[in-house]
Amino acid sequence: MTETITVVPANKASWDDLQTILGTRGYAAACQCQRFKIGHHEWTSATRQERAASLREETNCGRPRARRTSGLVAHLDGEPVGWCAVEPRPAFPRLLRTRGWRKGRDEDPHDDSVWAVTCFITRAGYRRRGVTYALARAAVEFARERGARALEGYPMITEPFKEITWGELHVGSHWAFADAGFAEVSRPSLRRVVMRIDF
What would the CATH number be for the domain defined by 5-198? Predict the structure, then answer.
């Protein structure tokens, strides 16, 4: 039987669906996709409920007519299974303060026509079924349709059959970005790569 993955902008998914994906335990539940949105001090001092309130405001989940949203939600045969954070790059202030991704590049980090994919979450029990790949491909169309001139990701370099922790892979793997048409721009570290697609 073929499984069908559908991806929608977060405002067209319910808040309950997104919270089901993030879960109730572990890093994804605690972070609520706020790590790149606020400074370290603000992130560590905020409660999970405060982070969730911020995410809810950013996504406009359950408001299909909202003019703004901040990510994508994937369903597998109707079941909520994946999340991807994708917005104009300046929407991620903590990312902008991280110098590694800019290494060797002369580009205005505040250019809001360049978008960024900063996080993927696949719900426990649904991994290794192509959810991240579907989200990466959908992120390309999502950004392009909203006027982005380019889209970047900052994935980890993984090796086949080598285990790596979820905490490292929330930024995605370079394989998923390559599959979606991104090309390597730079390697700021041994295990980090900047990938980009220009429209």
Answer: 3.40.630.30
Q: Is 198 helix (H, G, I), strand (E, B) or coil?
A: strand
Closest CA to 17 of 94, 92, 71: 71
SS3 content of the chain, % helix, strand, coil (to 5): 35, 25, 40
The DSSP code for 187 is -
Which parts of the chain register pLDDT below 70?
1-2, 99-101, 103, 158-169, 190-191
- Strand ranges for the chain from DSSP E: 5-9, 71-76, 79-88, 114-122, 150-153, 183-186, 194-198
Residue 149's alpha-carbon distances to 121, 138, 188, 199, in angstroms, are 25, 16, 23, 5
- Beta-carbon contacts of 119 under 8 Å, excluding residues fewer than 6 positions away, are 33, 35, 36, 83, 84, 85, 170, 171
Give me the pLDDT at residue 169, please: 62
**Number of neighbouring beta carbons within 10 Å of residue 199:** 13
Domain boundaries, the chain: 5-198
The confidence score (pLDDT) of residue 166 equals 47
Check residue 181 and give its pLDDT.
96
pLDDT of residue 183: 94
Q: Do residues 190 and 199 make contact, with C-beta atoms less than 8 angstroms apart?
A: no
